[in-house]
Structure formats: C-alpha cells, structure tokens
Amino acid sequence: MPDAKLSMERRTTPRVSIKVPVKYRLEKEKKVLRTIEEWRHSELNCFTLDMSLGGMSVVVDQPLAVGEVLCFELYLLDEKVSVTIYAEVMWANNMGAGLRFLMMKDEEMRCLRSFLEKSSVAYR
Fold first, then answer.
1. φ, ψ for residue 17 (rounded to 5)?
2. Do residues 62 and 109 lie in contact, with contact meaning Cβ atoms separated by under 8 Å?
3. pLDDT value at 7 more than 80
4. What is the pTM of this model?
5. pLDDT of 37
6. CA 60, CA 67: separation in Å to the nearest integer?
7. Which pLDDT value is given to residue 39?
8. CA dist 45 to 5, 23, 25, Å?
9. pLDDT band at residue 6 using 50, 70 and 90 as cut-offs
10. Cβ neighbourhood burial of 112 (10 Å; 0-12, 13-18, 19+)
11. Which domains does the chain have, with CATH numbers?
12. Which residues, 6+ apart, have CB-to-CB distance to 73 below 8 Å?
C-alpha cells in the first residue's frame, strides 16, 4: 500500500480567493523621522491571492523576509474605502508571501468580515 501524506488545515478562519489591491510599508522604517513625501515613496504595492480574517497571501514585486512586520492598507471598495492592518510575514518566496494579521481596529475588522462574507457568497 502506498504511503499517504495527510495535511491538516491550521487556519481558524476560512480563506476566500480574491484579488484586492494593497499598499504596504515595512514598519521598521517608521523609526526614522522623514517628511510626508518620503513616507509616500516608501509604500510598495502588491495584491492578494486569498484572504481571511486571520491572514492573507500576497503577490509582491520585492522579496519579503519571514518575521518582518508590515502595515497594509487594503482597498475593499465596500463600506469603507480602506482597512489598515498590521501583519507578520509567516512564509515568503520570490513570488509572494503568507501573512498573519497581528492587529486592526474593531470597526475595520467588521468591515473586513462583511467584505469577505459578501465576496465568498459571490464566488459560490
């Protein structure tokens, strides 16, 4: 009998496959004082492959490192224009990264939940 490899889902919230534009910046750079214009140039762009209330997978142009903490601005085009989320890079390769959400405001969590629920219904 051949060996079988079983994998167990470790996420506590289901992922929804959805492409959403995202801006992000490395939080370590906030320690340095700079002008608003310099801050705007430190933002990078990417997009999501999938997302849940606990994290997301993103496609990036520049590599990220495991353990980095990022601040993301998700454009949901729903109840609120954008949601700000702090996330940690859990895995990364040349194409993208998997992120675990660390912190977001309760109101923004409700907006994200509503957006994901509407999006998952639309894809059924």
1. -75, 115
2. no
3. no
4. 0.66
5. 53
6. 16
7. 54
8. 36, 5, 9
9. very low
10. buried
11. 16-122 (2.40.10.220)
12. 22, 23, 24, 82, 83, 84, 85
